[in-house]
Design brief:
CATH architecture: Roll
CATH class: Alpha Beta
Helix content: 10-25%
Number of helices: 2
Strand content: 35-45%
Order of helices and strands: EEHEEHE
Largest sheet: 5 strands, mixed
Structural class: alpha+beta
Shape: globular
């Protein structure tokens, strides 16, 4: 039996990539992207929340660079 995967969109300065990843693969990617914002469905989540999410119902996960404001 294969593991459940979902669409994971990873954005960076060059555009975005869409991958089919398992929950662990997604967590591994997010761990290497310090400061990134993670959205599960339409809700921003912390990586720890993503680890406890029902992967069969999570929907699309989006990982984007965090925004920094200032002058």
């Amino acid at each position: 039996m294969s593991e459940v995967t979902t669409d994971v969109m990873i954005a960076d300065r060059t555009g975005h990539t869409t991958l089919q990843l398992t929950q662990q693969e997604t967590l591994d990617r997010v761990a290497g992207m310090e400061g990134a914002w993670v959205f599960a469905g339409d809700r921003m989540v912390q990586p720890a929340e993503l680890a406890n999410t029902d992967w069969g119902t999570v929907g699309t996960v989006r990982v984007v660079p965090g925004l920094v404001g200032g002058n």
